[in-house]
Amino acid sequence: MKHQEYTNIYADLPSIMVDAVVLMDMKGFILDCNGSLVDLIQFTREELLSMNWKQFTCPAQITLWRSIYYNEVTEKGYSELGEIEIQRKDGKSIPIEVMVRLISDDNTSTKFTFVVIRDISRRKKAENELKNSRNLLQNVLDTIPGLVFWKDKSLRYLGANKNFMKYAKVSSIEEVLGKTDYDFGWVDSSSEKYQSDDRDIMETGNSQINFDEKIQYSPTKYRWMRTSKISLRDEHDEIYGILGTAQDITEEKEANIRMRESEARLFSIFENSPISIWEQDYSKVRKYFLELKSKGVGNLRSYFMKFPDEWDKCLNLVKTLNVNKNVVLFHERENKKKVLSFRNSPDFPKSLQKKHKFKYLDAILSLFNENDEIHTIWNITTPSGKEKWILGYLTIVPGYEKTWDRVIRSDLDMTEQFKAERVLLKREKVLKNTIQELNEALAKIKTLNNLLPICANCKKIRDDQGYWKQVDTYISEHTNTKFSHGICPDCAKKLYGDFL
Asked: Are residues 408 and 279 in the same domain?
């Protein structure tokens, strides 16, 4: 084929091809081109026909262009599709795709190169915009404190953020892409669980939101995660993958476990305490006190003493929330429910003696006035008729000082102590009487110990008033001694002689 024949063929190319088409010799000089090349790099056709490819190739791209133009074409007769940048007449760089094919003249064995150039500026711009968008999205994902990841239908990872990489024990996104859960640092049992959940989501289309699961690295090393997973769908509503997020809740989880353990210990102490403990809500009582104060009631105690029905109303505002075992036993009730039903009943105030109602009032007023000592003593009669004495303390649970939503009432059983005190009082009274009697006796004995005037003849004794009395009479008056009378043998002989 002659050069003129090639020229005739290329004469029709501008009307049928959008891409630039160039015919060059083996030294890279342009022999012919279509109008698309003129439009692309803004040289005139005449200028182009006198130019070498190096003159419109970006300097940094010449080595790459030489590799395509000479090495590949010379060795294979054609080049693979390649990307380089060329320069317009005004110096602006244009990205292009280029493909070169070697052509030979059968008659003269002259070799030419047939070059197709495609402007990929728009595609590159779109790719850059997409890349920037992806970078922006990746940057946004990387700033999220939680883990973000997504997988394809084969459960291979399509992407993830930096936090996911940290927990997966990898350093770059390349170590994530295309991998499965079995390729990361957690144990196989965790991987099996993750993939089982993923398959379930893809099969059913149902999301799994805010469920807790473990990342188990070893038998002793793990992290708790709060995970959500949804299905990814295309424009035809077909599921093509999974999107997941996760938040590390290890500290929260362990704190909750410690809190539950602490609550269990506290409940055990509460439930098994030898003291009767009531958990009560006094919030309505406090509001009622404040309401009365706002209406000008200065002395609440005087007010309730004057209007006792108002205090009954106030007692019914106390709500008992819980009690421990000892309350049930102390009050001889069947169970907690019975205690709560009795205490929260509108008839409860009627079960209290008047003096005890106002002892309770004094305790609650002490609470209202923020006194240090908040206690009272009263007695109750149990269903079996036993009298029991109570020393009760009121304490606001910390954090509820402004509301009184939680108040603890602790009752000490003082019954045995009160019984002992009563016995002690009786014994003290007996002892006091005995001491008094002993003192009186001692005083009388002391009198007997003094020198007594006695008649030398009749043996009568003169008392303090100057009266002469028989010895037995005097001693009986001054001691507890009683006399029984008889006759001694000598007196009997003297008095009765031989008659006896």
From this structure: yes
Maximum Cα–Cα distance across the chain: 205
CA distance 39 to 18: 10
* Among 95, 142, 141, residue whose Cα is nearest residue 118: 95
> Is 175's pLDDT higher than 90?
yes
User: What pLDDT digit, counting tens, does each position of 323-366 carry?
Assistant: 999 999 988 899 999 989 988 888 888 877 777 778 888 888 88
Cα three-residue angle 132-136-137, rounded to 5 degrees: 115
Q: How far apart are CA 242 and CA 150, in angstroms?
A: 5
Task: Judge contact between 32 and 6, C-beta under 8 A.
Answer: yes
Of the pLDDT bands very low, low, confident and very high (cuts 50, 70, 90), residue 248 is very high
In tens, the pLDDT along 402-414 reads 999 999 988 888 8
Give all strands of the β-sheet with 319-323 in edge-to-edge order: 319-323, 276-281, 407-413, 387-396, 375-381
User: Token pair 């630039």 is at which residue?
Assistant: 20
Same domain, 146 and 38: no
DSSP assignment of 457-476: TT--EE-TTS-EE-HHHHHH
Burial class (CB in 10 A: 0-12, 13-18, 19+), 258: exposed
Q: How far apart are CA 209 and CA 213, in angstroms?
A: 12
Contact assessment for residue 169 and residue 187, using Cβ atoms and an 8 Å cutoff:
no
Find the CATH number of the domain harbouring 175: 3.30.450.20
Helix segments in 344-394, DSSP class H = 354-368
What is the extent of the structural domain holding 405? Answer: 273-413
Read off the pTM: 0.51
Strand segments (E) across 239-341: 239-248, 276-281, 319-323
State how far the Cα of 234 lies from the Cα of 227, in Å rounded to an integer: 23
Whether 171 is covered by a domain: the verdict is yes
Token pair in block for residue 198: 């993923």
Helix, strand and coil percent figures for the chain, each rounded to 5? 45, 25, 30
Within 307-414, residue ranges assigned H as helices are 308-315, 325-330, 336-343, 354-368
Task: Please check the confidence at residue 74 and state whether its pLDDT lies above 90.
Answer: no
Residue type present at position 210: N
Report the chain's C-alpha Rg in angstroms: 57
1's CB contacts (< 8 A; 6+ apart) are 105, 106, 107
- Check whether residue 248 and residue 277 sit in a common domain: no
318 lies in some domain: yes
Count of C-beta atoms within a 10 Å radius of residue 479: 13
Number of domains in the chain: 4
